[in-house]
Amino acid sequence: MALRLKFLILCGFTLTAYLAAISREQSLPWLLAALLSAALLTGMFWPHWLLQRLSVRRVGPQRALEGETIVFRVDLQNRGWLPRFMVELVDRLPFVGAAEQGANDGDKLLGSVAYVPGRGARSFDVPLQCEKRGFYKLGPMGLASSFPLGLAEARSRADRSLQTLTIYPKVFPILSLPLFGAPSQIHRGGYCLPEGAGAAEFSGLREYRRGDNPRHIHWPTTARLNELMVKEFEPLASACICIALDLGRDANIGQGKHSTVEYAIRIAASVAGYACSQNMHSRLLADAKRPLHILSGKGDFHYQTILDALAVVDADGNTPYATLLTEIALNCVRGETVLLLLAEPPHRNAATLQALALLRAKGVYLFAVIFERASFFASANGGKTRMDDQKLAAGLTELGAHCLTVRRGDDLTVLFNQ
């Protein structure tokens, strides 16, 4: 709008100068009209010339964590013999500004280059914050200029190569979880694992190795052989986690990264990271347009698979959470702990509690995270919503579930490590 206004004003002055020159037989008005015409033509065509024979290239990471600051390297090259002035670099970076308003496909100004010599190049670094997890297509990158008079802006796509960026959900440290053991094939009884460490049975002796727990030294044998001997144990039970993620549309309250589904994804990623760091089995299930079924596994590769999936999921499902929990009950492992992420509307609580009762009947333990919907979305019936949350928590307590309540703005690190 400002460029058009400048152009119209200069056109008006030029036209006025020509009318004045025609009505007078003097050279000065003609000279003034010629100067204004030259300025008008220069302002219109010079920006287009500035962008000719210029190329730009962006180099940066393809993976990052939510909240992390990444650096893009931008290289601008002038293939012409004459220098270029006042060139702006623009790029399509949908992850910038996505925290509050979702993905933004508008062009972002990365910076301006005041001077590029003929047959020369300029390079600079652009730090950007990864505001929200997701899979983004970047670019194409382009150039813009309105130099010297700002009458017209020329744009060109100097780099048509696209780049993708995967932003993984931000995880927080978890020191311990109230998990229980799932029996193995040689299980001979119930073993409670409050620290998620597993249960074991004595299987033999071996020589002491550096790093062994001194409590496991078998002193009678050590005294007899005059050599440190430690006890070995055969695992009887190990904790395993099933993460049940609710990706229903009506279970997502809030905006941007301050929504219940984003909190749930962060919690799911952090719990999966804790399980893999403790060498526990974990699996992830969710119903959406693209159902998410990651089978039980452990280790770094399994954790990376979970992160890849959580980076791109959307709350676009229509399946009630109770349906997913019923499916889990059909193929659950006795002693398994199911992580519940509850943010669905109150009218579905009865069906959800019924499905959870089936899980408990199958010998499954419940770890429930209840999102206080009223804190994520300030509605007129906030008091009624809190009462519904309290009723849900009471029903979960009757089922023997370990419950945590999450509100908007809570520090999840503190909440999960109290």
List the helices and strands and how they pair.
Blueprint: H1 2-23, H2 27-50, E1 54-59, E2 63-65, E3 69-78, E4 84-92, H3 98-101, E5 107-116, E6 121-129, E7 134-138, E8 141-145, E9 154-159, E10 163-168, E11 181-183, E12 199-207, H4 219-225, E13 229-245, E14 254-255, E15 258-259, H5 260-277, E16 281-286, E17 292-297, H6 300-312, H7 321-330, E18 337-342, H8 349-361, E19 365-371, H9 373-376, H10 382-398, E20 402-406, H11 412-416
Summary keywords:
3 domains; 418 residues; Rossmann fold; single chain; elongated; Immunoglobulin-like; 11 helices; alpha/beta; 8-stranded mixed sheet; 32% strand; 4-stranded antiparallel sheet
